[in-house]
Amino acid sequence: MSISFDDILNTYQSAANGLWRTITHPIAHGKLNLFYFLIVISLIVWVLEIAMPWRKNQKAIRKDFWLDTFYMFFNFFLYRVVFFAAFVKLIYAGFLFVLTKFGYSEGSHLIDLSQLNWVLQLVIFFFVADFIQWGVHVVLHRVPFFWKFHKVHHSVKEMGFAAHLRYHFLETFAYEPMKYVGLSLIFGFDLQNAFIVYYLTVLIGHLNHANLGWDYGVLKYFFNNPKMHIWHHAKHLPESHPHGMNFGISLSIWDYIFKTNYIPSDGMDIELGFDHDENYPKGFIGQLVEPFKKES
Description:
single chain, mainly alpha, two-stranded antiparallel ribbon, globular
């Protein structure tokens, strides 16, 4: 299987056209599309922050609010939907090429789950995808090269819902290929209802970063939550977790299973960031360029 320049160009054009349709047609196939879902869920979580703030001295328009809002739309749409589309196609072709060397044929799956009930498929999809992302997240913290890019996300100094999607766009190259192999090639998921999981993960991610003092009670051992995730952004790391802790994306269970959980206290007023972050660029372009600079 090969991909020509025209294939890539057509992929970009198709993605751009799809983005335009998304913006101009809020309802698609009987449901609110992702663009408007992101706007609605962001407004809802923001209202919750205003109505019941955990850190009461934090302003509704917090530090870097507009920067993080720009990151949300840039990463979720301008980059992810348009520019990343061609790369996904290349990744798919590349993995197919490698797998065919081991007897894999296109359309088959190493583990075929397509015949399971669609609800069960979505549950498995949710767990597998979240575990893959947890593992990638650990790597982003422990490998110095990847940490340089992940620092963008940890440059947040005041936590709020929009901080969820402040990340360097090249992180997509770490997360997506792993998920794509695991979920699209290895398993035979019928993913026509996968938007349910996708929307749920966006909601959980927004809540995890929101200025809300929630931990969900006994469910905190299952779902990631604001009181747990705030410690993931702590500037001062404990000796027991020198590379970070609480790596869960939507689920907290992986951290409890692999002993990377750490919630020593309420965490409401802890300082966020990383060592020497006072010298870190404060603007979008500066943060995108920073990982490529030589360390002095």
